[in-house]
Amino acid sequence: MQVRSATAAWAVEKLRNASTTEDGEFGWPNFTPKRDAADWLYESESQNAFGPIPCVATVEQYRASLYALSTFCLIGDLKSAQSVATFLINRSEILDNHYELRYPAVTAFSEYNSMANDQHRELIIALATSGMEFSETLHFNNHDSFYKVDLPSLPTKVLLYATGAGCATMQGRAFYSSYVVKDKTSLFEIRSGIVEEILPDRSSIEAIEGKLPAIKIETCFK
Question: What's the average model confidence in pLDDT over 183-196?
Answer without folding.
Answer: 69
